[in-house]
Amino acid sequence: MKRKKALTKAKIFKEAIKLADNYGIANLSMRKLAKKLNIEAMSLYNHLANKEELLDGIVDEVFSKIDWRTDTKSKSWKPELRKQAIAVRAVLLQHPWSIKLLNSRSNPGPSVLRHHNKVLGLLMSCGFSYSMCAHTYALIDSYVYGFVIQECSLPATRGCDFVEMTASINALSRQGFPYLTKMAEEYYLKPEYSFSDEFLFGLDLILNGVEQAFKH
Amino acid sequence: MKRKKALTKAKIFKEAIKLADNYGIANLSMRKLAKKLNIEAMSLYNHLANKEELLDGIVDEVFSKIDWRTDTKSKSWKPELRKQAIAVRAVLLQHPWSIKLLNSRSNPGPSVLRHHNKVLGLLMSCGFSYSMCAHTYALIDSYVYGFVIQECSLPATRGCDFVEMTASINALSRQGFPYLTKMAEEYYLKPEYSFSDEFLFGLDLILNGVEQAFKH
DNA sequence: ACCTGAACACCGTTCAAGT
DNA sequence: ACCTGAACACCGTTCAAGT
User: Fold this and answer.
1) Residues of A with CB below 8 A from B183's CB?
2) CB-based burial of residue A110 (10 Å sphere; 0-12 exposed, 13-18 middle, 19+ buried)?
3) What are phi and psi of B169, to 5 degrees?
4) Is the minimum distance from the CB of A47 to strand D below 7 Å?
5) Is the dihedral of CA A116, A119, A122, A126 positive or negative?
6) Which residue in chain B has the smallest CA separation from A196?
7) Stretch A194-214: mean pLDDT
8) Domain layout of chain A by residue ranges
9) For B29-72, how does the pLDDT look when each residue is reduced to its tens digit (9 = 90+)?
10) Phi/psi class of residue A176: alpha, beta or left (left: φ > 0; alpha: ψ in -120 to 50)?
11) B28 three-class SS
12) Closest approach of chain B CAs to the CA of A147, in angstroms?
């Protein structure tokens, strides 16, 4: 019999992420996770206080994947902040369940805190006042999270076939939403349209606005 | 024995919202809801296909409370769009559980669709192109939802006493997050600071940016 | 120090049976 | 047409007992 190596939090989190990626966060239960780890559900409680700690842990694990090198002393906050926003979106999209967990957890882990510290450090060392830091960060964060949440819960419109497309357009117009109908048939449901492509428009608009506010 | 009036979806949704408001969305179960309605859990399935329909229903009910009069023919989209964003935030804050449901539901109800139709109609009748409509709406929606999500999941910092405040500052600085620590002690944790006050800064920055993009 | 089995108090949902 | 009781297949978590 080969002896199993001791279980660690790291291994538990890794397996939990795999489960959530493959079967959805709704199917991540302590019992199923334990089964995957070849132990009984109750054994997990030797390593974790409760499921909360598991969820906090895997969110933080996702955040730890953000590319982490930044010249905090940089004098150009704008391209750097842009890069950070893009990076956050990228890791969240890799694990679509993570965005929903992120803002329902009240105990941010070290990687989440490290990220906040990095962004605030960037702004502060570029001469942003406390209030401009707070304004800017609230704005960028809200936008990125809000955008990714919508993106992750969008029906996979790519695979949407012509029949159900016209069906949903017809349903809309029957219920009396003329503008929405028009917009859907003339724009949203065209195969060229991709919600994801909207991300940079909003991000750059926000960054330009912050720049103007910063310069007074 | 007084005869109970027939149960309707409207009554079920109303009771469900009351339950979620009072005890949190986590405590809204089919069984508890049925008990409040003085019926057995299984009877709910005579009125609803499943719990999904319940959640779709109560989200839509929340959206139906948005003030709904709008002069869609208005030539000034900016104050109107601003008012809509503020109204959406207001109703979502009244039912803090609703924001999390909103973007996990894939079947938007009539009130949600009506709202989308209204905003798109406003922009379209003010001469926005399809692509500017899509850009603008994605941006505003992302911001509002992202902001409200953060707002709803913030620890009730108002009641936070001095002891735990300094404790959390110390914890931060011990872990080595100097900027975050500084920002917390010099700004975020001061009693005058309120995250909610950040909302209008971002909203107006975005609206001004859209205005510039619209004018070319 | 770690794992286990049995148990508790829950879930959503189905189904056959009642009125 | 609506309601019910029993049942199924799940949850997270506790606790006393094992090694």
Assistant:
1) 120, 124, 130, 133-134
2) middle
3) -60, -45
4) no
5) negative
6) B138
7) 97
8) 1-48, 62-154, 159-188
9) 999 999 999 999 999 999 999 999 999 999 999 999 997 666 65
10) left
11) coil
12) 5
Q: Which residues contact B133 (CB under 8 A, 6 or more apart)?
A: A183, A187, B120, B123, B124
> A1-48: what fold?
Arc Repressor Mutant, subunit A (1.10.10)
d(CA B131, CA B166): 49
Predicted TM-score of the model (pTM): 0.94
- Give which of A57, A143, A168, A172 is closest to A108, Cα–Cα: A57
- Please give the single-letter amino acid code of residue B155: P
The three-state (H, E, C) secondary structure of chain A, written as one string: CCCCCCCCHHHHHHHHHHHHHHHCHHHCCHHHHHHHCCCCHHHHHHCCCCHHHHHHHHHHHHHCCCCCCCCCCCCCHHHHHHHHHHHHHHHHHHCCCHHHHHCCCCCCCHHHHHHHHHHHHHHHHCCCCHHHHHHHHHHHHHHHHHHHHHHHHCCCHHHCCHHHHHHHHHHHHHHCCHHHHHHHHHHHCCCCCCHHHHHHHHHHHHHHHHHHHHHC
Single-letter residue type at B102: L
Which amino acid, A97? W
User: Under 8 Å CB-to-CB from A102, ≥6 apart: which residues?
Assistant: A59, A92, A112, A145
Structure-block tokens of residue B151? 């707002």
Instruction: Report the pLDDT averaged over residues B168-183.
Output: 91
Q: Rounded to 5 degrees, what angle do the CA atoms A166, B144, A89 make?
A: 80
A62-154 architecture in CATH?
Orthogonal Bundle (1.10)
pLDDT tens per residue, range A137-196: 999 999 999 999 999 988 765 555 678 778 888 888 998 999 999 999 999 999 999 999
How many CB pairs below 8 Å do chains A and B form together?
A: 161
Q: Which of B142, B178, B201 sits opposite A143 (nearest CB)?
A: B142
183-202 of B, contacting A, C-beta below 8 A: 183, 186-188, 193, 195, 198, 201-202
Chain B residues 25 to 44 with C-beta below 7 Å from nucleic strand D: 39-40, 42-43
Residue–nucleotide distance: A29 CA to D5 C1' (Å): 29
From the CA of B34 to the C1' of C2: give the distance in Å. 43
